[in-house]
Design a protein that fits this description.
- It contains 5 helices and 7 strands; from the N terminus they run H-H-E-E-H-E-E-H-E-H-E-E.
- The chain is α/β, with parallel strands linked by helices and 159 residues long.
- It has one domain: Vaccinia Virus protein VP39 (Rossmann fold).
- Helix 4 packs across helix 5.
- The radius of gyration is 14 Å and the shape is globular.
Length: 159
């Protein structure tokens, strides 16, 4: 957390273009509508969300990154989110899950607050890939895996 608070001033310069490319890939892979309720988990500045249709809510544990986020935002952690069951149609988490303290619990929480589908990405060389896949399977969720550049995307079905 301290790392992201410390780099918040230069976050967009460091990661902005990369995050936008991933969001563009996601928007092209799935047709979101203006009426979709979307939760972005580990959102940071959320600047890339402009490429995805829908009513967006963002959650992140970094107060400094959220200050730069233009969408509805909540300071909090993925492992315990302050939202009602099925409050959102979709959950998105772009290259954030590897930073969560408990990956399985965070995916479980996303499946609780989301009705239709969860989209998670992580770096292809992340040490968390096996844990992500094991967690999805242990939770009894089905998924499709897609590769984009140096990222692995998990499209997790909930319906």
């Amino acid at each position: 957390m301290k790392y992201y608070n410390a780099i918040s001033q230069g976050y967009e310069e460091l990661y902005g273009n990369e995050q936008e490319e991933k969001a563009r890939f996601l928007a092209e892979s799935h047709r979101f509508s203006d009426s979709d309720r979307i939760l972005d988990v580990g959102s940071g500045t959320g600047s890339y969300l402009k490429l995805i249709k829908g009513e967006k809510t963002c959650i992140d544990p970094s107060r400094e990154l959220l200050k730069k986020n233009p969408y509805k935002k909540v300071l909090g952690k993925a492992e315990r989110m302050p939202f009602a069951d099925n409050a959102f149609d979709y959950c998105i988490s772009l290259t954030a899950v590897q930073n969560f303290s408990n990956i399985k619990q965070s995916i479980k929480e996303m499946s609780r607050v989301c009705r239709k589908k969860i989209f998670i990405s992580t770096m292809e060389k992340s040490r968390s890939i096996e844990e992500i896949e094991r967690s999805i399977k242990e939770l009894g969720l089905s998924y499709n895996k897609k590769r984009f550049k140096k990222e692995v995307f998990y499209f997790i079905e909930l319906e």
